[in-house]
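Budget justification note: compute hours in this period were largely spent on complex prediction jobs such as the one shown. Inputs:
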Amino acid sequence: MKITVVGTGYVGLVSGTCFAEFGVNVVCVDKDREKIKKLKKGIIPIFEPGLEELVKKNIKEKRLFFQTNLSESLNGSEAVFIAVGTPSRRGDGHADLSYVYAAAKEIAKNLKNYAVIVNKSTVPIGTGKEVHKIIEEINPQLEFDVASNPEFLREGSAINDFMRPDRVVIGSENQRAQNILKELYRPLYLLETPILFTKRETAELIKYAANSFLATKIAFINEISDLCEKVGANVSDVSIGIGLDGRIGKKFLHPGPGYGGSCFPKDTLALVKTAQDYKSPLKLIEQVVDSNKKRKRSMYRRILKAIPKDNSNKIISILGLTFKPNTDDMRDSPSLDIIPSLVKSNCKLRVFDPEGMLEAKKNFLKYDSKITWCKNAYEASENSDALVILTEWNQFRALDLNKLKKLMKRQIIIDLRNIYNPREIKENGFEYHSIGRSI
Ligand code: UGA
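Corresponding output:
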């Protein structure tokens, strides 16, 4: 089988490469010539564990191709995936669909034979219908279907999520389209992966509902962690205690500085707007959005509160800048709120992130004179008043505490991801602050 994937961003590149690994012939198309030139050589623009190797392997085995010409790529393709960006539109929080519609128009102009056009980008409910209308208007002779096939890929473990998913959701009630997509996902039948066929609108909503539910779990445990601090309870045990109930589940109950990334903040907001438009407001998700925003904004106060107040300018070490480990993605990262607020409070920062430094530098240009970019965690801790763990990279989980103690001016650790055992850190002579654990 041959397919085309339009858009070589995160979703398009991972999906295209994984389909190639399944044995399908995949052409990934992007207008960005420079990007395509690099991709052809196996140079990938994002950091995602395992992706570069898989891209190179499938290029070599001649199943994965990159090009800028959509028309050529469509020749013989049975499925055309739209995997372009849907950023939050400025001003109103709605998903910006201009790239999706532009892709639909291009496909309509160039497609000659039947294909199922599949929306993989996260799109508001009703977009599939709109894409269908656009294609029909431009190319009325064309035989085609439009399906929704949302992605559930986490950055940092996207390949595993694609190859071993909990489920695949296919929004199409058309038999021909279903058969093509069934064939594409056939390798997953061996793993007995549930494949759920739904109405197109249902599939579109499943994506937003899943992300909003996960965001709700995080906001919930973050608020519970605040209460734990007040009443002297331990949030880690609360997470285990409730998570062991099969109806609740133990995942996504880790408190932290607030969720970030390119999905949860954008998708919760988009769902809230859709619900408002349909006059069926989702008050609960509105609260989640608000709770998370406030949490990110308030984190710097927690850091400042942990450091003794004297007149000197504080030096604070920051470990981790990306919104989660194993990515270089800075989008909506809590560090984007915390770092400017600390700088405005007259702190000097020594920062380190294993993969995100390049991206982070672009975001903090304005604050560069107050930031020292370090090569590792130890360099970042030199002479500092407090060390803040902002992202739970594995590299930070077993730091040499003796070495840290000698390097730091004040032995204060503020662990916003609860990666250390409070007792152990205290026994090593540190003052330790974490989330929702009062010991
Ligand atoms: C998320 C979903 O998990 C994917 O299923 C979905 O496909 C993807 O969005 C998307 O819509 O494309 P991702 O944003 O890559 O994936 O990362 P997550 O692992 O879900 O983490 C999101 C944020 O929540 C991070 O800031 C993370 O630190 C935070 N988080 C996560 C917590 O604070 N606590 C937790 O227990 C879990």
